[in-house]
Specification:
TIM Barrel, 48% helix
Length: 255
C-alpha cells in the first residue's frame, strides 16, 4: 500500500506543511500540489467543491507526492466513506464537541472491527494499491476539529477516542464560541490559554494537532508549541493577494 508520508514525518517528529483548497478546480489543485507541500486539503465545508469536483481534484493532486486530505462538510458517514473510497488519505471533521461525535466520525473511517466503514474502495485501490483494505485502518488519518468551548471542555475525552489520530484546531470558530473579540487572534491570551490546554492533552496522549497559520512567524511558533500539521496558505487568499498586489504595483509604474 502507498505510504502515508504524513505519518512518516510525524513519526520522525517533523512538522508537515499543508495547503488548503477552496477553489473547485482540478487545474488550480494541480498547481498547488506541484509546489511541494507535504499535504493538500480539499475543503468541502466552506470551500466550493462538490464530490464530483473533489474527485477530479484528487486525480490532479495524485500527479505529485502530496498527501491528499479533505475536510468533510459535516460528521455524516455517506460523504466520509465516499471520499475515502475516492482515495483521500486523511479527513478533517468539523465541529466535534463530544466523545460520542468523535467515535461516530472515526467509526465511519475504519473498517470492522475498529469501525463500521462499508467496503468499496473503488479508486482507493488504484491510488493506494490492491492491498488497500488490509492496511487502510492504520494508514488513513483522522482529525477531529476542536472549535467550540464545549469541545475545549471535553478535549481529553475527545483526544483519547480509539483510532483518532488527532485534532485540528479551528481558531476562528473557537474564538467566536469563547466570546472573544478577535477572530482567531493568536495574540489573545485567552485563545493562547485554550491552545495550551489542547496541546497539553495532545502531547500527553501522543496525538497529532493541526492548525492554520497566518504568517511564517506564526507557523514557526505553532510548530514549537507542538503543532505538527500547519496550514500557511489558502488558494483563494493567495490568488486574491497576488492579483491585488500585481494591480497596485502596475498602477504605480504606469502612474
Amino acid at each position: 500500500m502507498r505510504e502515508n508520508k504524513l505519518k512518516k514525518l510525524w513519526g520522525e517528529g517533523k512538522t508537515a506543511l499543508n495547503a488548503w483548497l477552496t477553489i473547485p478546480n482540478a487545474w488550480t489543485a494541480e498547481i498547488m500540489a506541484q509546489t511541494g507541500y507535504d499535504a493538500i486539503t480539499i475543503d468541502m465545508q466552506h470551500g466550493l467543491a462538490d464530490y464530483q469536483t473533489a474527485l477530479s481534484m484528487l486525480q490532479a493532486i495524485s500527479t505529485t507526492e502530496a498527501v491528499p486530505l479533505a475536510r468533510v462538510p459535516w460528521n455524516e458517514p455517506i460523504t466520509i466513506m465516499r471520499l475515502l473510497d475516492a482515495g483521500v488519505y486523511g479527513l478533517v471533521c468539523p465541529m466535534i464537541n463530544t466523545r460520542e461525535e468523535a467515535e461516530a466520525f472515526v467509526g465511519a473511517c475504519r473498517y470492522p472491527p475498529l469501525g463500521f466503514r462499508s467496503y468499496g474502495p473503488i479508486r482507493a485501490n488504484l491510488y493506494a494499491g490492491n492491498d488497500y483494505f488490509e492496511h487502510a485502518n492504520e494508514t488513513v488519518t483522522t482529525l477531529a476539529m476542536i472549535e467550540t468551548a464545549q469541545a475545549l471542555e471535553n478535549i481529553e475525552e475527545i483526544i483519547t477516542t480509539p483510532s483518532l489520530d488527532g485534532i485540528y484546531v479551528g481558531t476562528v470558530d473557537l474564538s467566536i464560541s469563547m466570546g472573544l473579540a478577535g477572530l482567531g487572534d493568536l495574540n489573545d491570551p485567552k485563545l493562547q490559554n485554550a491552545l495550551n490546554t489542547i496541546m497539553k492533552q495532545v502531547i500527553k496522549h501522543s496525538r497529532i494537532a493541526g492548525i492554520h497559520a497566518s504568517t511564517p512567524e506564526d507557523a514557526a511558533k505553532l510548530s514549537e508549541q507542538g503543532f505538527h500539521l500547519i496550514t500557511p496558505v489558502n488558494d483563494t487568499k493567495l490568488l486574491r493577494y497576488a492579483a491585488k498586489n500585481a494591480l497596485l504595483e502596475t498602477r504605480k509604474k504606469i502612474g
